[in-house]
Design a protein that fits this description.
single chain, 81 residues, alpha+beta, 15% strand, globular
Length: 81
């Protein structure tokens, strides 16, 4: 069987920053926290899985029910009724 394997598109933090319009610092933090897939090449170079970053951005919401800020806003708005 001859299976074709696809490889993820990887980009540097700078490329990801330019592609998605986000700061390099923010993308680096997402990678270091494990929020998006990334690999380290050597001591300093980090490559971002561009598909993983795209998926993260597509599926992110400003608030969700487990977010403490969301809960504080909901409780506060109930009290002000």
């Amino acid at each position: 069987m001859n299976e074709t394997k696809t490889h993820p598109r990887m980009g540097t933090i700078r490329e990801a920053s330019q592609t998605f319009g986000l700061s390099e610092y923010y993308i680096r933090q997402l990678a270091l926290r494990g929020t998006v897939r990334a690999v380290r090449a050597g001591k300093t170079k980090i490559f971002i899985n561009m598909g993983s970053l795209s998926d993260y951005l597509e599926n992110s919401v400003l608030y969700d029910e487990t977010d403490s800020c969301y809960l504080e806003n909901m409780i506060g708005s109930i009290g002000r009724g």
